[in-house]
From TrEMBL:
Domain Inhibitor I9: 91-166
Residue ranges of the region described as Disordered: 1-29, 224-253
Extent of Basic and acidic residues compositional bias: 231-247
Organism: Vitis vinifera (Grape)
Protein name: Subtilisin-like protease SBT1.7
InterPro entries tied to this protein: PA_domain, Peptidase_S8/S53_dom, Peptidase_S8/S53_dom_sf, Peptidase_S8_Ser-AS, Peptidase_S8_subtilisin-rel, Peptidases_S8_3, S8pro/Inhibitor_I9, S8pro/Inhibitor_I9_sf
Gene from which the chain derives: SBT1.7_0
Amino acid sequence: MAKDFDRVGSTKGVGFEKESRDAEGEMDMKGAHRIGSASSSFPGLNNSGSDQETVKRMKGLGFLFTVALTLLGFCHVFVAAVERNDEERRTYIVHMATSQMPESFQERAHWYDSSLKSVSESAEMLYKYSNVIHGFSTRLTAEEARSLQGRPGILSILEEVRYELHTTRTPEFLGLDKSADLFPESGSASEVIIGVLDTGIWPESKSFDDTGLDPSPVAGKASYEATLGPIDERKESKSPRDDDGHGTHTATTAAGSVVEGASLFGFAEGTARGMATRARIAAYKVCWIGGCFSTDILAALDKAVEDNVNILSLSLGGGMSDYYRDSVAMGAFGAMEKGILVSCSAGNSGPSPYSLSNVAPWITTVGAGTLDRDFPAFVSLGNGKNYSGVSLYRGDPLPGTLLPFVYAGNASNAPNGNLCMTNTLIPEKVAGKMVMCDRGVNPRVQKGSVVKAAGGIGMVLANTGTNGEELVADAHLLPATAVGQKYKGWYPTLTGGAAFSSRGPNSITPDILKPDLIAPGVNILAGWSGAVGPTGLPTDKRHVDFNIISGTSMSCPHISGLAGLLKAAHPEWSPAAIRSALMTTAYTNYKSGQKIQDVATGKPSTAFDHGAGHVDPVSALNPGLIYDLTVDDYLNFLCAINYSAPQISILAKRNFTCDTDKKYSVADLNYPSFAVPLQTPLGGGGEGSSTVVKHTRTLTNVGSPSTYKVSIFSESESIKISVEPGSLSFSELNEKKSFTVTFTATSMPSNTNIFGRIEWSDGKHVVGSPIVVSWT
């Protein structure tokens, strides 16, 4: 019998996507611990009071946790390290063509079970999926999987994939404090539900106080563990309780209640609040110590549709693959069909190009930007020079005298000793000294722990060329300061794109510009779990109510919460309309006129870094015009990228055949940005040859009657851009008008990118779209 996972309810929350990674693969801030499944009696909640007392507290607050629970994702041994054979059972997701169900079956579940039993009497379904996809997950040998693939009605069988998890200031920074009266604070606002797929939540957090909200329904079904063995309750609980902190942080960022006097050790002290303070949170626990597994993610997405969530927030990602093989993309398509906006983190693999995750056009892909806030610390050398850095250390200070200073690379016999990895430092060479470690590979906070374990009394953490001048503050276990590359300084007065934030181009569909936009993702203060210290290290015994961490995990729930505000203000808007409003009103220049900076290079960032720009929620509330999209538009897009009928059916969950008499083009997808990938040389000619590409778009009026005129900006004469017509007049609400953009491109060397922008304005609204023309 297929296993359901617990649902305990939904109300409040604040936000999360995994902390930033350095480009070398470093998991910044802390480890990726994941939590387990919960039953209606919440086993494992004895971390803080009795199980029954905790349940009563949750119910009294009207909380609705929805927990996607399976132990399928719990594994202490990396699967890749295990030699497999055909007799070993693995987890598979089986996609079914329900239109092919034989008439002899009355229910899909019976057909699924019969199909499964035809290849294995002992195999059991782990999950039945009925909303975002059609099918089930199970454990099979390779031979059984091959046999099942040949059965009637089987669209595809995909092996399970593991994904990784990729405040007080941000509401002010985004203008929400001065514009709170513009957004609904009751009624429709409290009816919006934001589903957060993460590591669970910490229910005692003050950010989850739902005083003043109407009671929400509490639903409960028994939860079951899946197949990889029982949860080790010495390391994580079976309940939806967050033992990691990441889920609490992301949920509270998205929709945390107002909490006065919030801070981390006195840093960033002020009033903490999420983006949508009156929205409700449905928390789906899909991530464990072993990672976030695709079967659990799909089960949570499936249940979220059933739970009628309005927004889904996923601060996680994995490797890139075609949309019909990507579980997040498949599940997000099903959610989009139900009118749910899906917001995902772009990833923390920047500043390398082609490093994005979650690039499907029906997903809102969020990169990370910085805040106009830092936590300054200083390094003073014996030669009289002083260097600025950042730190969140709060503890016993260093002695007020100069200390001996050693570079970790000179205090280690290991080839990577400069990185201060575990057991690489020689205690005799670092004891009683300040140690300089290079950033990269292992977590920043772990480097400090390694220095401390070897006898060092302080650390200077230096950026490498990959990080540029990006400075990320951490709550280190010893006195420590992060400094820029080679102590060259930093940019304390500017905000910009975070160096770790993953970058375009889009490796799956270059014609779709990603990321869509950026939001605050560096040094974000939000709620935290009481089960783990701020660094997440086992040796960190400190307990905090709030923590400051960084990553696109943090930027994603900002957009999720803001999307919730827009949904409350405009309940009739589609997911595409909400995304359009957020994108077309985003800014790419500071108020001074200076362009947003790329912190990795110190140069102006581009659309491959920031997408449409940095979110501006106040402007998004009244965008004037929007680019809307329907399910059929996305199906036509799939035809344009030459997906076969079976591949499209996996996403659409129904028979869909592309019309052979119709010409499909990605350029016709009504997206709020323009990406024009070209081959070099163009037109089969040499230098000076050119080609012409046309994109068609349709704008919908969501404001007052008005006439909009177009402005075109291009950074190079090698690309000529024209728009026809040059003005659009709207006389009524929801009126639609189309226009065509013509790109005439002169041949350029390979790997050349030209950036530009189109803006429609009526004098009150500015509806902007980024442009990138690339030669490959």
